[in-house]
Amino acid sequence: MRIGYLECFSGISGDMLLGAIVDAGVPLSLLEETAAALNVGARLEARKVSRGGLAATKVDVLTAEKITSHAAHEHHEHGHGNHDHHDHAHHDAAAGLSHQHGGSALHEHTHSHEHAHVQDDGQTVTHSHEHSHEHAHEHGLGHESEHDHAHPHTHSESGEHHRSLSVILSIIRKAPLSDGVKQRATRAFQMLGEAEAAIHSIPIERVHFHEVGAVDTIVDIVCSAAGAEALGVDRWLASPLNVGSGTVDCAHGTLPVPAPATLALLGDAPVYSAGQPMERVTPTGATILRMLGVEYRSLPAMRINASGYGAGGRDTPGQPNLLRLLVGEETAPQSVATEPIAIIETVIDDSSPQLLAYVSELLLTVGAWDVYRVSVQMKKGRTGVQMTVLCRPDLVPTLRDVILRETTTIGLHWRLENKIALEREFAEVQTTWGRVKIKIARWPSGELANAAPEYEDCRRLAELHKVPLKKVMQEAARLYGTANPTTGAPITENQTTGKEPDGSHKD
Prior knowledge:
By secondary structure, this protein is α+β, with helices and mostly antiparallel strands. 30% of the residues lie in helices and 30% in strands.
């Protein structure tokens, strides 16, 4: 199996991934042809740069406005974090707008047809920005840039152009590209639009992308899909993500990094913060990770065929601003991962079922992996309930105190055992009633071991649309099996019940 492994020790952005793909051997001409096929007036530029003393490739998306701006500012050295485009100022000539901050700009106009406009800038987190806007600015998705210097930036209502999600999807659909590239890019923009709509509580139809920002994002995402296809990778993996730290100022106040759109797109991906305060995972970077279906885990046993370094804009001291891509073949199936698990048990014979049900839910909320209860026969012929809690070893003190505080027991015991768990990942399917997550378990070789619709998603849709729960579960299973004929057989009804791969109960 051919593996692509992304080492995100300094985060990820669209330009960093494109740089890593080119550095790993994908011809720049292929990505240039992809950008030209979109017919959005943009081209790519690649050059060798140094980050922390290491050679890397920097890829920029250039539009006519940016080329003009670059010529006017080329004597400046601009500091960018992991932001998806250019070591120079960005100027939107039509809108009279110089971009300084990050995130996407959601414009809340005062005219009667209220709608959102989105552009994806990378976010400078520690700088003071002087904003003069004729309409409110919110950070989120669109075109990503960051500048070390401060300059006032004003927006003019006249001359601004925006693209709706449907227009962007039409651009992708009409481009002379492979079906695989189109499908990946379409899925990426759908997720991007859904994230922004959820953040601002607006229908997805009212999400619009600022034209210049949308060009950058379209090119980044579609070229990333084309580059991934050219690498022939079967399975994408990544290290935990260094998202950066600090804050960013916007119209609604000061917000922490990662930005709301990035946080929404990352979902349950493992994250941490290291290095100087700055944004390290951009909204476009997070979208691409979702588009590729990345799994987060340690580096597997593999024979490396190619590697590449993609550069962010800023050369950050003490933390090379790089994304490393490793491409190769998995050499041998790894053994199933083993980790310690704590088991806490107590037996109670003087408590109501309602109380025990409440405590079980509370334990799960606090962090227990699973809680289950079984009826037992105790001394003197009394019937009791044995409560068993499975958790991480470090949570034993917290969960122990919950049990002693919330139940009538006056004692318990606990022990450490070994837990064996298959690697897990998630996919989503769009049913007639809404989206349903599919939990997937794989053997170390990557072969599918099990896949099942998430119960809570199916239950919510069943209750909302007044349809049988089993019907929702069966439809979600069918759709996943149809969409993934090479990764596993369609899920049967029996596979939608039972236990998790680690032995804990689903529900």
